[in-house]
Amino acid sequence: MKLLIIEASYPRDFFGERLDGLATFHLTKLLRINSKLVYALDKKHLEKAIALAAKGDYDVVHLSCHGADDGIAVTDNTNVDWPDFVRLFSVSGYSPKALIMSSCCGAADGLADEFEEAESQPEIIFGSTDERGYNEYAVAWAILYNLFEVDGVTRNAAREALRAINAIVHRNFRYLRWHDDRQEYVQYPGEGRQYEVTERIKVRRKS
């Protein structure tokens, strides 16, 4: 697995040393994941980061930033709405296996709707549907990337991770998977579905 982590949080997050992208980078190094960290302080560098991911054929893109229902904002407080964000992938014809949105409302319906109209889209979109705390994202990504490292970047790994995240962290995380036949994203879990973690999460041991 090749993972590109893009850090685009606000200046106050840099000052307060609360950078999800940086924390995730160090976490993935402990998991022996082939990861790279870049900083996108403005829209120009966000565009460069997505182009880098496409050129480098990265399996997973992890974006740490602030967001809302209609899009995201990067470090210099430039707003990037969902149509503009999706175009950054479309210009390179880039379809990563997974897009991990570490931002408020990162798994919003609006993002999925825009990708459904594009020629290129991630197989998996993973994030929250509302505003979550820094600590909640940190725990969620520890669970997700451990399972990606053990089982690969697959739908089964994403489902198992989401079950654990919903049980341990919060139920307002979800993942959307691309349905080839229907040419649209399918939400997991489905509306009103409840579940529990029934087996122990696999953990990579130190060696």
Concise structural overview:
This protein has 207 residues and is α/β, with parallel strands linked by helices.
Question: What integer value in Å does the Rg equal?
Answer: 16 Å
CATH class: Alpha Beta
Silhouette: globular
Number of strands: 10
Number of domains: 1
Total helical segments? 7
Average predicted local confidence, pLDDT: 92
CATH topology type: Rossmann fold
**Percent of sequence in beta strands:** 15-25%
What is the succession of H and E elements?
EHHEHEEEEHEHEHHEE
- Judged by helices, strands and strand pairing, the structural class is alpha/beta
Protein name: CHAT domain-containing protein
Polypeptide structure, described:
The protein has one domain: Rossmann fold (3-Layer(aba) Sandwich). 38% of the residues lie in helices and 23% in strands. It has 7 helices and 10 strands. Helix 2 (20-30) runs parallel beside helix 6 (134-151) and helix 6 runs antiparallel to helix 7. The chain is globular and about 40 Å long. It comes from Hypericibacter terrae. This is CHAT domain-containing protein.
